[in-house]
Q: What sequence folds into this?
C-alpha cells in the first residue's frame, strides 16, 4: 500500500469514528458500534472494547463483535471468566502478535482497552494494522471519557428526580404503584415494539417523571369522587404541560418531553392537550397511555372502581382503536400470556 493510500485510509478512519461518536449517546452503544466498525475497517475476524470503572478500575463492560454476533458482557459472574491476557490489556498492557493486537485506552489515566483478532488461517497483522487501531483508540478514548462523565451527571440528576417522585408518592399526589413495576411493564412493551435502547431509556425517565406536574394540582381535586367542574378539569388537563416545564431545563431529558406531554392523547384524536391522533402521537406516549390506563383500572381512582387484571385487559381491548393504539394493545395482550409479564401486572395491584 502506497503512502498516499495509507494517508487516505487513516483520514477515512478519523472521519468515520468522528461520525460514530457524534451519533452515539452512551458508552454501551458506542462500544458495540465501535467493535463492528473495527472488524469492517481493519478486516479483523473479531474485536472487543473493555471499559473500566472510573473509580474501582475493574472491568465493568466488555463489548464484542465476531463478524456475526454483537454482544455486551456486564454481569460480574461473566466478567470474572475473562482471560488473564484480557485483564492485562485492560490494565494498560499493549499486545502486538500475529493474530492479536491490543491497546490500552488512555485519557488522563487508563479507562479500558481495545483489541482485534484474526483467525489462524487469516493473514497476520502488520504495523499498519496496529497504526490503524491506534487511530481508532485515540479518537474513541475522548468520547468514552466524556460519555462516562455525562452518564454520571445523568445518574446524579436522575437520583434527585427519583427522590422527588418518592416524596410525591408519600403525599399521595402520585399513584402509589411502584415505579420499578410500572417501568418493567413499559420496558417489555417497548422491547416488543422494537423501540430500541434509546427509546427504552426515554420511557424509563418518562415513567419516573410523567406525573411530576401533579404537584401543582390541589389534593382535593385529585381525591374528588364527584364529577369535576370545567375549571377543575382544566387544571387536570394542564398537568402534563406543568410536568414538562419542571424538567425542561434538564438538557438530556429533552427527548422525553413529547412522551410526557402527549401521554394523555387518544388514538382517535379526542385526548389532550393537543388533540393529536394515531401516528401523530409519539409511540412512547401511546405505550404509556396504555400502561397508565391499566394502572388506573387495577389500582382504582376516587371516581372509579377497582378492576381485576382480566377486567382491565378487557377494557383495553374494548378501547383499542379509539382511546388506544391497536398495536400497543395487541402487544400488551400478547405479553400477558407470558409468566414474567403477568407477574408484573399482578404486582401493579399491590
A:
Amino acid at each position: 500500500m502506497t503512502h498516499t493510500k495509507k494517508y487516505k485510509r487513516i483520514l477515512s478512519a478519523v472521519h468515520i469514528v468522528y461520525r460514530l461518536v457524534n451519533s452515539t449517546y452512551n458508552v454501551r452503544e458506542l462500544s458495540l458500534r465501535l467493535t463492528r466498525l473495527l472488524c469492517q475497517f481493519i478486516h479483523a475476524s473479531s474485536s472487543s472494547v473493555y471499559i473500566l470503572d472510573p473509580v474501582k478500575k475493574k472491568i465493568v463492560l466488555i463489548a464484542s463483535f465476531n463478524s456475526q454476533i454483537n454482544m455486551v458482557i456486564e454481569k460480574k459472574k461473566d466478567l470474572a471468566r475473562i482471560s488473564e491476557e484480557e485483564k492485562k490489556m485492560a490494565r494498560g498492557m499493549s499486545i502486538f502478535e500475529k493474530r492479536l493486537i491490543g491497546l490500552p485506552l488512555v485519557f488522563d489515566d487508563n479507562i479500558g482497552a481495545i483489541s482485534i483478532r484474526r483467525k489462524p488461517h487469516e493473514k497476520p497483522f502488520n504495523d499498519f494494522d496496529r497504526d490503524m487501531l491506534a487511530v481508532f483508540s485515540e479518537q474513541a478514548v475522548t468520547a468514552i471519557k466524556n460519555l462516562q462523565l455525562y452518564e454520571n451527571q445523568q445518574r446524579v440528576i436522575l437520583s434527585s428526580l427519583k427522590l422527588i417522585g418518592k416524596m410525591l408518592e408519600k403525599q399521595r399526589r402520585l399513584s402509589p404503584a411502584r415505579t420499578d413495576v410500572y417501568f418493567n411493564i413499559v420496558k417489555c412493551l417497548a422491547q416488543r415494539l422494537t423501540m430500541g435502547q434509546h427509546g427504552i431509556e426515554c420511557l424509563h425517565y418518562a415513567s419516573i417523571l410523567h406525573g411530576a406536574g401533579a404537584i401543582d394540582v390541589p389534593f382535593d381535586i385529585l381525591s374528588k369522587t364527584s364529577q369535576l367542574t370545567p375549571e377543575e378539569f382544566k387544571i387536570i388537563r394542564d398537568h402534563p404541560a406543568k410536568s414538562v416545564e419542571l424538567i425542561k431545563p434538564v438538557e438530556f431529558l429533552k427527548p422525553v418531553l413529547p412522551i410526557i406531554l402527549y401521554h394523555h392523547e387518544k388514538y382517535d384524536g379526542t385526548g389532550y392537550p393537543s388533540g393529536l391522533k394515531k401516528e401523530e402521537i409519539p409511540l412512547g406516549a401511546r405505550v404509556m397511555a396504555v400502561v397508565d390506563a391499566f394502572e388506573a383500572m387495577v389500582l382504582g381512582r376516587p371516581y372509579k372502581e377497582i378492576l381485576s387484571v382480566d377486567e382491565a385487559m378487557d377494557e383495553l381491548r374494548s378501547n383499542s382503536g379509539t382511546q388506544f393504539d391497536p398495536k400497543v394493545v395487541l402487544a400488551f395482550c400478547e405479553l400477558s400470556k407470558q409468566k414474567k409479564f403477568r407477574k408484573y401486572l399482578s404486582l401493579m395491584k399491590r
Residues 72 and 287 are 27 Å apart (CA to CA). The domain at 163-348 is CATH 1.10.3210.10 (Hypothetical protein af1432). The first helix runs from residue 3 to 21.
